[in-house]
Each structure stands twice: as structure tokens, then as C-alpha cells.
Design goal:
Length: 172
């Protein structure tokens, strides 16, 4: 079993789009309407949007490879790229997604560790994320890794307002 993490570049935009669609569908399709899923996927993961995010120096994407296959990815944000004004001392984990067939191999933990490594390099003392209140597996994972719920915010899946818990971990 070989696990590698590689920073994404603009040249990875098509592959990033493909894995974004696949993992988001696998994770949320069964709990949302097809119309709202399609609207969100088109808004969040169209090539122009992904290329804009890949070009933002305050955002970084990383692929995780399992035996040379792209198994998932991480997106982190600092400064003004954060989706909430949490503060300059914080790093946001906006996305950690692992393809279903690669789950239960420790890849989410590897990406979380990568995010903490980036936060330390950037001298951030907190990491935070938003996780859908109905995503019980993810909430349990983050709690196990030392995150605590510190708030909530609205997340729009198409025209449906949903609630994401804001979970934070202090690093210092």
C-alpha cells in the first residue's frame, strides 16, 4: 500500500472536476434532490470556478494517491479565501473528499495531517471546517481528531438552505 500526496496545479483542473463530482455525488446524492445536486455541482465544480480557485494564492488543493490512483483530495484556505471570517490565525479545511472505494484506508487522516502541517508552516494556531449536520460519519471523524463544534452557518444546496456545523481544532 503506497500513499502519496501531491499539490494540484491548473493542469489538474479536469481531474479535479471529475473527482469533485464523483465524491460529492457519492457523499450527498442520497440525501438531496437531483435538481439541487445538479445546481450545486454546476456552481461549485465548473471548470472556470475550479481554475479560479486553483489560481488563488490563498487556496491550495492536494490529491491523495493510493497505489498510484487518485483516491481523494483536500482543499485548504487562508486569509480572504476562507468561506467565513474566522480570523487570520486560522486555516480552513474547505474540502476533504475520498472516493468510496478508497475509504477506510487512513486517507482522510493523511489529508487532515497535511492540513495541520500547512497550518503549522503558515503559523496558524487554529484549523476549522464546516460539516453538514447530517454527515454523522464526518462529524464523528473530526471529533475523534480533536475538533469541537464552535458554531454553525448556512450552506446552500441548490435552493435548499442546510446547516453546516463549524468545527475547530486549536493547534497550539
Amino acid at each position: 500500500m503506497t500513499i502519496n500526496i501531491k499539490k494540484c496545479t491548473l493542469e489538474d483542473s479536469h481531474e479535479l472536476q471529475e473527482i469533485s463530482h464523483e465524491t460529492f455525488n457519492e457523499t450527498f446524492k442520497h440525501q438531496n434532490s437531483p435538481e439541487n445536486m445538479d445546481a450545486y455541482l454546476e456552481k461549485a465544480f465548473n471548470l472556470k470556478q475550479l481554475e479560479k480557485e486553483l489560481s488563488n494564492p490563498s487556496s491550495q488543493f492536494y490529491f491523495v494517491y493510493f497505489n498510484n490512483d487518485v483516491a481523494g483530495y483536500l482543499k485548504v484556505n487562508i486569509d480572504d479565501a476562507q468561506s467565513e471570517e474566522i480570523g487570520d490565525e486560522s486555516l480552513e479545511i474547505e474540502r476533504i473528499y475520498i472516493r468510496n472505494k478508497f475509504q477506510k484506508h487512513g486517507l482522510g487522516k493523511c489529508l487532515l495531517n497535511k492540513a495541520m502541517e500547512i497550518a503549522a508552516e503558515r503559523k496558524k494556531n487554529k484549523i476549522w471546517l464546516g460539516v453538514w449536520e447530517k454527515n454523522e460519519n464526518a462529524i464523528a471523524f473530526y471529533k475523534k481528531k480533536g475538533f469541537v463544534q464552535t458554531g454553525a452557518h448556512s450552506f446552500y444546496m441548490g435552493d435548499e438552505e442546510q446547516v453546516d456545523f463549524i468545527m475547530t481544532k486549536t493547534l497550539i
